[in-house]
């Protein structure tokens, strides 16, 4: 942690509530300070508010002024694959073929410590360049990759969740790990890394299709022994995968039941994708306090399908949601790009939900919830992600006592057309109120990318400054 | 045109045939020169081939060497809206609402000559930054916007197609133009601009829903009087729009028939989108020699739906296709980004066509045609676009006698993760054969954007050099 007390002055925007709870008045879920001051002590937010109010409370404090930028909480990536950094955006197949052809061979290399270490450096560099300050990551079935992941995260002082990634079937022989070895190595790694610095451990069955009952039982035992640990997996990404899950777990009526049966579905459980979850499965996620990580870059890139965002945000049974890039199935490290694609998924869903194609599919309330306003998008990428991961006590916005991870956004950067577009949203040149700030943020998510991330700060220290490239 | 004779040496990749005709052997449709020489005289390709063969034929010629880059024909955008440069990526609604809220008010400003002139400068700058050297553009119903568009294109010596854009209903009063005024102004503009320099004129009924029968008849008369002119319009973008078209043209069995009835469907006719075209409509497009411009950025951004690429490429009835950004419905000027989204649309289609959801929808042949390999993607963006616009005699590849518009691609630029990814595709550091070149190109379309466009050349002169931003 950065030991000194210091302050950052600038234009701040964060979410203080779920904007879906404020339909029609979403700005009530946001906090906007056109001239704010963030006071950080030992990496923790010690004070926050309008400059004129906060400044007198801290006479003589060193102030870093960051003008002409929007400062937001750091982005949280709920679902990403560390060992896929080099194969992001690989050509050609749906999930199961793609895994065999591109992913497994690359991930095998991460048993080599040097390769894994180099990759970890590149991985975290790319995260920071995209404005991501926290991620929940898959590693491989080799403990080496998990060790190097946590070691690099610790060097950078980043809040991360990861764990040895178990798979004991449907992959090449040398890619598999036995349930016994997975159990023993997971125990060792939990002891070594969980809650050491900012590292957090997730018991990680890769996906139920790739896990035998014995592997799921090993996870179940681990969760009982270490109830403080997270659980991270995949669910219902692709129709063929779901059929295989049904075949392999004939005693379960659906994919979700595999996790219920093993006592895993509950708080701190996240499953990536959930594209094909039924209404009933979503209700059970909601009641259990379990989360889905919505990965639109990947769902489009692999053609998995359109996640039913509006259904998941049913106010009667809301599912905890994060946004995930799912890099390398997702073709970018950028949560901003993930927001763009999430918006598109919502819009495509709504052309069906408006009833113009099939009147029986009309559901205008669900359609309204599919509309990814900037308030909703940046909620998913910050406080919402933190809430889904049960980390909203330490991350997600600028509340006092939280960890001071944040991003500094340049709303005019990116493709050449950006600046003129943004000038239409803020006639005064800078956002004068929360709506103007939100319009700039929509410009960033609709037209922008990692170029809009000018700086990324970890625990009060600048960890990334953009070099135009 | 650039009067001097000169030569460019570098790594060249272009398409010489439609790769869909070479399924399984798509590289046969491509031409790859790891060390090539392009000789340009008066803006026209005078010679092209391997450096060792071509160079001795031109002793003493000035050679510009561009190493470590892939040189491709300039990109062709088949569908873009000049007066939407400032509202690209606008928030919130499906087609018809979005037009009323964002588009019409902005387009109205283009009746002001100064505003239109400034916008034209920005528009062409953004095109060139994305590697686009030719576009077919909509303007507005004010002749001023068409004049300023052609004037700016002429200053830049770019091959463009555009025309006064007719709409006489379903828009604010001051946005409309009467069929009589549209007819008279179109005649005048054709006389003034068509085939002057590189400018080409398209008779442009905005979309049949916005055009009365009288407006369509004005277009019909214009096409008879000026058969050399192009026709540019929209079709079947959105289900609600199609229903409205059916209501407004009760004597037509489908949307396509509106154009058939007015004698417009034929060579040099392009309709943007075609998301919801029936199989029968596609067959009629194919037989007529008419084209569709596939606009995946827009179709996802507005939620219009998934274009059936594999159906349009049915070998029995192939539809001429270009790629379009449809900027501002599309949220980028970049054809590279359009290729990314086109790939995703194909992949999403295929999760239905593999029969895993509904066995009755299984069509593996169509699914194969949906797969947007780099050969297919860059064909659509270059030679295929030229073919669809009946410009393949002058544009689309490096054949002798064609116009020397090209882009210089840096395969390592873009988000931080790009270079390491690309190093996996080309172990030697540069592409040694056509397949390696294609793999780099897939990396660009899957992970890249306008940052990969290092230079853009128009008629043998460099018109854009990337400034890292």
TrEMBL record, chains A, B:
EC identifiers of the protein: 3.5.4.3
Regions crossing the membrane: none
Entry-linked Gene3D superfamilies: Metal-dependent hydrolases (3.20.20.140), Urease, subunit C, domain 1 (2.30.40.10)
Catalytic activity: guanine + H2O + H(+) = xanthine + NH4(+)
Keywords: Hydrolase, Metal-binding, Zinc
GO molecular function: guanine deaminase activity; zinc ion binding
Enzyme class: hydrolase
Superkingdom assignment: Bacteria
Cofactor mode of binding and number, as noted: Binds 1 zinc ion per subunit.
Amidohydrolase-related domain ranges (all copies): 71-460
InterPro entries: Amidohydro-rel, Guanine_deaminase, Metal-dep_hydrolase_composite, Metal_Hydrolase, Metallo-dep_hydrolases
Biological processes per GO annotation: guanine catabolic process
Pathway: Purine metabolism; guanine degradation; xanthine from guanine: step 1/1
Co-factor requirement: Zn(2+)
GO terms for cellular component: cytosol
Protein's job: Catalyzes the hydrolytic deamination of guanine, producing xanthine and ammonia.
Entry-linked PANTHER family: GUANINE DEAMINASE
Family: Belongs to the metallo-dependent hydrolases superfamily. ATZ/TRZ family.
Protein name: Guanine deaminase
